[in-house]
Amino acid sequence: MISEKDGSAGGLRPARGILAARLREIRGMAGITGRDLAQQAGWHFSKVPKLENNKQLPTETDVREWCRICGAESQTMDLVASVRNVNAFYTEWRRLEETGIGQVQRSFLPLYERTSHFRIFQHSAIPGLVQTEAYARGQLSKIVGFRVIPDDVDTAVEARMKQHEVMTTGARRFVPDR
């Protein structure tokens, strides 16, 4: 099973969301309000909801303080490792994008070719495997403009269309993700 890649750091969002949910759960289990946590940590009251709703990534120091205040010191090391992993993923993704998104799109093809059972979820766009050339060009152009990376949209679209060909070759099964 693989998840659809949209040419952005989309894999980062779920990891950040899991981290945010864990922080929210820890605070809830401790019976501490967001305002109380922020006050005890010396933060602005708006920081806690930003961290819990995945609007801001916590620092390692934030996580250590959160766990201390909530009495969840046993979870500190694991949560700090999560922060480090998210940061490493983001750094690696940005490194890959330095030369454009064409090579990133090409890198997915071997995985797609080896995959026989696809379950795809994409909440805000048509999945890459079923995109038309015009749609892919529009989506990838937006990414290039937003991320301010080299414009190799033609190469990326060509790679995306090769991904699309995977749907019609070999014995593959596509299942909607609910």
Features:
single chain; 178 residues; mainly alpha; two-stranded parallel sheet; 4% strand; disordered N terminus
- Tell me the Rg in angstroms: 20 Å
Give start-end ranges of low-pLDDT stretches: 1-10
- Give the total of beta strands: 2
Query: What characterizes the major β-sheet?
Result: 2 strands, parallel
Strand arrangement, major sheet:
1-2
**Total of helices:** 8
Measured by DSSP, the beta-strand proportion falls in under 5%
Mean pLDDT: 86
Q: How would you spell out the order of helices and strands? A: HHHHHHEHHE
Morphology: elongated
Fraction of residues in H or I helices:
55-70%
Distance from N terminus to C terminus (CA atoms, Å) equals: 14 Å
Structural category is: mainly alpha
Task: Record the SSE blueprint.
Elements: H1 12-30, H2 34-41, H3 47-52, H4 60-70, H5 76-97, H6 102-114, E1 117-120, H7 133-147, H8 153-165, E2 173-176
Task: Please characterize this protein's 3D structure.
The protein is built from eight helices and two strands, in the order ααααααβααβ. The chain is mainly alpha-helical. α4 runs antiparallel to α5 (76-97), α6 packs parallel to α8 and α7 packs across α8. Mean pLDDT is 86; it is low at 1-10.
